[in-house]
Structures are given as structure tokens and as C-alpha cells.
Amino acid sequence: MKQGGWRKRASERDGWGTWGGYISAKVQKLEDQFCSEAAIQHQKDGTSSSIFSGVAIYVNGFTDPSADELRRLMMLHGGQYHVYYSRSKTTHIIATNLPNAKIKELRGEKVVQPEWITESIKAGRLLSYIPYQLYTKQSSIQKGLCFNTICKPEDPVPGPSNISVEFNRV
Asked: How many Cβ atoms from other residues are within 10 Å of residue 51's Cβ?
């Protein structure tokens, strides 16, 4: 076997000659494929817009619509889709649910629900991401929970004080 086989064939031009060159070349290839597929899709469908111009998404985990569908929507409406998350290039992370560790890791990033994309398309313009944030900023000391109200505010709350009133009436 030859010594340094791939290193001798690698060059600075193709991205393989530097440290981390494989991933850099792979990401660039995926971005180029996305751009060429977007051009073909625009010609085929003829129904495209630039709603997501300047927006680059990364899909984290299961979403509805699926990651493939979100990729297609971004392609049709002028956005970018990243297969790999890049803190410097990705503008929005699309997710339905994230574990606590991931939430801490992505603190300060725009993590939004997939509805932000579909609702923006329905509206025909880029909507604010804030109402679609997956997690709003919570205090690191006190975590907040959001429950749907079951009782109406005017309904008496069951508890010891109401039970004793019931027994005293007899």
C-alpha cells in the first residue's frame, strides 16, 4: 500500500487538504446540490417565492411536516436547508421537542416550531418567529410550566375549605 495515498491526491482547492476537510467538502457539496435542485424545482413547479430569502434552517428530530417536506418548502420559497447544524450559518432551528441538555446547548439560538414555516407560507410573508418559539426564555433558577386551565375561574376550587362547608350543611 502506498504511503500517504489520499493526502498526496488532496489539494487545497477541493477542501480535502486541510484539517476537517472531509466535512467541509461534504457540507459544500450538499449546499450545491440543494441550490441546483432548487433551480430545477422552480422551473418545474413555477410557483416559487422568496419568503425565506436569507433564512437557513436546520431540522432537529421528528417534525410535522417532515424534514424532507420542510426541505422542499424552503427550496420552493427561497430559503436554505442545512443537513448539518452550523452556528455561524444556520439562522433557525426547527424542532417539535428537545431534551433538556439540547435546550441548554442551544441557549440563545432561534429554536422554532415547524408551524412558523407553514404559517409564513400561508400568510405569503415571513412572520415573526417569536410566537413560534419552542421554548421561551425561562429563568435558569425557576423553570416554568404551562398548563391548560380545566376549571373556570368562577368555579369553586375543590379543597378542604369547600368540603367542610358541605358537611356543616347537613
From this structure: 20
Task: Give me the pLDDT at residue 148, please.
Answer: 57
Residue showing cell 414555516: 117
Question: pLDDT of 100-113, one tens digit each?
Answer: 888 888 888 999 99
Q: How far apart are CA 166 and CA 160, in angstroms?
A: 10
Please state the φ and ψ torsions of residue 6, each to the nearest 5 degrees.
-70, -30
Rounded CA gap, 18 and 65, in Å? 38
Predicted pLDDT at 9: 52
At 91, list the grid cell.
439562522
Q: Where are the beta strands (DSSP E) in 1-85?
A: 56-59, 80-82
Give the helix/strand (H/E) hosting 100: helix 100-105
Orientation of helix 21-45 relative to helix 67-76, angle to 10°: 60
Query: 144 CB contacts (<8 Å, ≥6 apart)?
Result: 138
